[in-house]
Design goal:
The radius of gyration is 16 Å and the shape is globular. 19% of the residues lie in helices and 22% in strands. The protein has a single domain (7-83), classed as Alpha-Beta Plaits (2-Layer Sandwich), CATH 3.30.70. With 101 residues, the protein is α+β, with helices and mostly antiparallel strands. The chain is built from two helices and six strands; from the N terminus they run βαββαβββ. The strands form two sheets. The protein has a four-stranded antiparallel beta sheet with strand order 2-3-1-6, with helices on one face. It starts with 6 loop residues before the first strand and ends in an 18-residue tail after the last strand. The protein has helices at residues 20-27, 59-69, and strands spanning 7-12, 37-38, 51-56, 73-74, 77-78, 80-83. One of its GO terms (molecular function) is RNA binding.
Length: 101
């Protein structure tokens, strides 16, 4: 769970072979926790989507990261960085059972 001061950044145009360690090195000056980097995969194909989510400690560091890394080159691809949209909470998983009558 994120604290209220933390900011989630969206990094687009990630090359297929880039690891979370490489992303952590890129975002290290901005207080990125390497354990909190997400590289989402397509549910059907299990291939990476080409994006990453990175958590930084506060808005000031997020703004600095966006400015410094906006067109950084990572694995020969130019990445873009922006503040990620807040996502709605996920619905509960599993089967729904009605109460016994």
């Amino acid at each position: 769970m994120r604290s209220s001061a933390e900011v989630r950044l969206l990094v687009r145009n990630i090359a297929k072979g880039v690891s979370s360690t490489e992303i952590a090195e890129l975002f290290a000056p901005f207080g990125c926790d390497p354990e909190r980097i997400a590289l989402p995969r397509d549910r059907r194909t299990r291939r990476r989507k080409g994006i990453a989510y990175v958590i930084v400690a506060n808005g000031r560091l997020a703004a600095a990261a966006i400015e410094a890394l906006q067109h950084a080159v990572l694995a020969e691809k130019t990445v873009t960085v922006e503040i990620a949209d807040e996502r709605p909470p996920k619905p509960p998983r599993g089967r729904r059972f009605s109460a016994p009558r």
